[in-house]
Amino acid sequence: MRINLFALLFSLVIHSAVLAQLRFTPEKPQVGQTVSFTYSPQSTPLATDSTVEGRFMFYGLPGTMHLSRPTTTTLVRQGDVFIGQIYIPLKNVAGTMLAFRNSKQPKRVDLNKGLLYAIPLFDANGQLVPHALAGQASVFTRSHFLYELGGRPDQNRVISLYSQEFQQNPDFYPIYWSDYLTAQINQKKPGYGPKVKTSIETYLASRPTPTAIELTAAAQLYESMGDFPKSNALRERMKTLDPAGSLMQKDRATVVRNETDWNRKKAAYQAYQKEFPNSSYLPALTVMMTDGYFKNNDIRGLVPFVDQQPVSHTDVLMLNTMAFQLADERRSLPEAEQLIKRAMVVLKTQPKPATISGNWETEKQTRQRQLMNTYARVLEQQARYGEAYTAYQDVILPDDVENSDPRTNERYFLCALQANHATDAQPMAEAAIQVGKATPRLKTALRDWYAKQPGNTVAKADAYLTELEADLRADQRDELRQILINEPAPAFSMTDLQGRTISSASLRGKVVVLDFWATWCGPCIASFPAMQQAQTRFQNDPNVRFLFVNTREGGPIQRVHNFMAKHPYGFTVPVDASQRVSRAYKVLGIPTKVVIDTNGRVRYRQIGYSGDPETTVNELTLVVEMLKEGK
User: Fold this and answer.
1) 359 is in which domain, residue-wise?
2) To bridge 44 with a disulfide, which of 110, 124, 133, 557 should be the other Cys (CB 3.0-4.6 Å)?
3) What whole-number distance in Å separates Cα of residue 14 and Cα of residue 37?
């Protein structure tokens, strides 16, 4: 009978996953193992999506749930399915819950109809580990995982999971009793009030000396049902038991942490701070509130809140991130300046954090440069270029250009231009270009400034920039030679969207760039601006041809026409409806770029898109130039 019960429980656990086409191995995973899974999005909201990622959360005992944070796992597409892996840690885990979403459009999600996908753990005997079922319910009751993804828990499912756990492990009821009753309150079945109240009284009566946590939970249950007299009576009893102890503080901190309404959360925090000014939970709550002010766009409230906090309650790097984002978005710039100034003041007196294992003085110098970089950005966005230029000088390290940030180098030189210090900043800009740490905008700005100097011309400026890049481009060419291939280019003949026939024979003697793509392929579309830049560089060269081969479309050709009409890239789009050309050119996934040389040989093949348009443009440009030269 016991084996049959386990079989029934397991079938209930995996039923939704099977229906939604989630398969995993091993079939009965254990702690310390890596679970490999296959997600098939057919019949889900992500059925037509090409870029999908997983979000998962480990679960276990209620007391450990706050240690588990939702994590993203990368999925690899293989045909119509996605493959992923999750390593199961060795402690405090009874399983994991997953959801899937479009990595480019996170609001497009598959939540398994609100149930999420469960991967419970088993022991060495093949039996479900303790808490494998109730722990799933805890994901719904003790985390914001489902809410963050735009879902709401199914209370019937929550209650069912708890009930199954209690059938198998009756002794676990004291662990989950308040969460179980909360789910019944949220379920709101007719007559739930008297039933829940009876359950509360029965449970407290069974405890010889209820703890402060149990009394708090009971008081909250009564309060959620509107029975304030009983709630207040329990709170008074709790105060008598432990009026300001650690348990009370922890429970109240949890109340503040779990409050979802921002105004009520602020009020709850203020009350906690007043009642427990020396609580060990207060620093973490303060950091959480700092983050809350920012996420709720309560920037005017954020600045005075941060200014009031002691050093021990202030996360310098969090303030830095907030100030930089505000600066980058050109919003609340005065407040951003106040935030970063506060961060710099705190850093000067901040003791070594427990999380830092290395030399604190060295780490402080690194953090100081990060803060100063943000301060310079804030000043720059307020058009205070002279001050920003001075601040950037404390960020820029002329002797370490190879490890510099191209965007910071760009901002430094642009501020120097505005502050009439371009000559002083010129050596750093030149060095950045020479080692590949310069953005296109920095190169253009330096070239244009150089052309305006006495005795110079645009032609001299172009030659100057070419000379600066000469060694770098030579190195890049050497690296590219290592990855060039040499294969015969299969013959092809395709019809483009205008009805013209395009054949390999007609392109003989030209360098041909083939970009294999489809309208549903997110990375393909993301690479198009870079591909347009590359095509533009050779638009006046009759010996270079770009072809954007539509393949694996899987839908009506009108979809391709509509896409190109909406996005006028000026591309020539041959259609490879049968995938004959893509197979001949060994296209394993899209996007894939293939370059054919003037002798009809495939010399370059690259799958995917890095997300870096400049790298894509530069690499393709160098490949085309090398093949034009016969190298």
Assistant:
1) 263-377
2) 110
3) 13
Q: What is the largest CA-CA distance in the chain?
A: 96
Q: Which two tokens stand for residue 28?
A: 């009965």
Q: Is 284 exposed, middle or buried (0-12, 13-18, 19+ CB in 10 A)?
A: middle
Tell me, yes or no, whether 279 lies in a domain.
Answer: yes
* List of E strands, 480-615: 487-488, 493-496, 501-503, 511-517, 544-551, 574-576, 592-596, 601-607
| Residues 6+ positions from 404 with CB-CB distance below 8 Å | 396, 397, 432, 437
Are 83 and 136 part of one and the same domain? yes
Same domain, 28 and 148: yes
- Residue count of the chain: 631
Chain CA centroid to CA 27, Å? 29
Does 13 share its domain with 157? yes
DSSP class of residue 106? T
Helix (H) / strand (E) containing 39: strand 34-39
Helix (H, G, I), strand (E, B) or coil at 41: coil
Where does a domain end: 417, 450, 480?
480
The pTM assigned to this predicted structure is 0.54
Over the stretch 85-130, which tens digit does the pLDDT of each residue have? Answer: 999 987 889 999 999 999 999 999 999 999 999 999 999 999 999 9
- Distances 573 to 506, 590, 611, 617 between C-alpha atoms, Å: 16, 15, 22, 19
Residue 322 lies in a domain: yes
Report pLDDT digits (tens) over 22-56.
999 999 999 999 999 999 999 899 999 999 999 99
Say whether both 456 and 550 belong to one domain: no
For residue 495, list its beta bridge partners: 501, 575
Domain count, the chain: 4
Closest by CA to 223, choosing from 233, 231, 215, is: 231
